[in-house]
Write a structure and sequence with these properties.
DNA-binding; four-stranded antiparallel sheet; TF_fork_head_CS_2; DNA-binding transcription factor activity; alpha+beta
Length: 323
DNA sequence: CAAGTGATAAACAAAA
DNA sequence: TTTTTGTTTATCACTT
């Protein structure tokens, strides 16, 4: 699998959703969010500065990468001439861009302190104490993938985990042992020598073995899918990596034209409105596309979610219909 | 029930 | 010498 030719801009992962929508808290205290107001590639030309500013300022932590995605550099990445930098099938940007993975973050990171302080014993405990649903392999994978060079020393892996999963701020030190144990034992990770000339600090750098990357990504995707499904129906939409049914080929972002008129021309409405969400199918650029968006959303493609076109997504949509 | 997987603990050696 | 990093072994819990 050729995954290294398309790389994400550094720090394309963001621990927080851009959404200011109401949060949904799962039974284990993790939070998932309804669809973000602007979640997936807003057209560089369709996203007004006012909207971008609005979204940016609404982010609880406006320094996060997702917010950066609305700024010049990242938006530019979505332009046709730069599309190849964004079309990595295995990109993890969906994990953050729409709050699809890390929206499962504990509230502690998403809720203003004042709100946390007002919580009463009758409410669920502060979710910072709840353990993330991801395996250590997944955590390590995410950390490494989020690094500019796709490699990190152990210390930075610890740091990434702590920064993104507050549970580990207060967890006992054993998890670090587990991280090292996992790095050592798992075939998915490879130890590489640091550049001695630039080496500061102990140890080696760790990277993801390319041959195991799809597997790790799949595990991560399934984990997220499972937890978001269990925690909140409306998080059923799969990450907006555009996949063809065989999971192998990327449907380039270019194939989706974010022009409202064109989509509306060819789309048919799917009866999901009972769930509060609407599924829209349309055929475009020789691809069968479908979207899910809140029922009260105007058909403005700046606000829609692009879903995977694979069978899994279809199945998810089917289960939505069953409700 | 057995096998596989992941988490955790612990011991130990090597390196910084 | 201390701390960190990396490896290995063992055990337990859970899932398939």
């Amino acid at each position: 699998m050729e995954s290294s030719s398309h790389t994400l801009p550094p720090s394309s992962l963001c621990p927080l959703p851009v959404s200011s929508s109401p949060q949904q808290t799962s039974s284990n205290g993790w939070v998932s969010l309804p669809l973000s107001p602007i979640s997936f590639p807003p057209s560089p030309t369709s996203l007004s500065p006012a909207t971008a500013e609005s979204i940016h300022s609404s982010s609880p932590l406006s320094h996060c990468a997702a917010s950066h995605c609305l700024e010049g550099q990242s938006v530019q990445c979505l332009s046709p001439e730069n599309i190849s930098d964004q079309d990595d099938l295995t990109c993890l940007s969906w994990l953050h861009q729409r709050g699809n993975l890390l929206p499962l973050q504990p509230l502690a990171k998403m809720t203003p302190l004042a709100q946390q302080e007002s919580y009463t014993p009758s409410q669920p405990p502060p979710p910072a104490s709840s353990k993330p649903p991801y395996s250590f392999s997944s955590l390590i994978f995410m950390a490494i993938e989020d690094s500019p060079n796709k490699s990190l020393p152990v210390k930075d892996i610890y740091e990434w985990i702590v920064n993104n999963f507050p549970y580990y701020r207060t967890a006992t030190g054993g998890w670090r042992n587990s991280v090292r144990h996992n790095l050592s034992l798992s075939k998915s990770f490879r130890r590489i020598q640091r550049d001695k000339s630039q080496s500061v600090g102990k140890g080696s750098l760790w990277c993801v073995c390319p041959e195991y990357r799809p597997t790790l990504l799949e595990v991560l995707r399934k984990t997220h899918s499972y937890h978001s499904t269990n925690s909140n129906l409306i998080n059923k939409p799969e990450p907006p990596c555009l996949l063809t049914p065989d999971h192998e080929e990327l449907v380039t972002i270019e194939s989706v034209d974010y022009q409202q008129e064109e989509v509306c021309e060819n789309m048919e409405k799917d009866p999901l409105s009972d769930s509060g969400y609407i599924e829209l199918h349309y055929y475009q650029s020789n691809q069968y596309q479908y979207l899910v968006l809140p029922g009260d959303t105007e058909l403005d493609l700046e606000t829609v979610e692009i879903l995977q076109l694979d069978a899994e997504a279809q199945e998810a949509a089917g289960s939505l219909l069953d409700l």
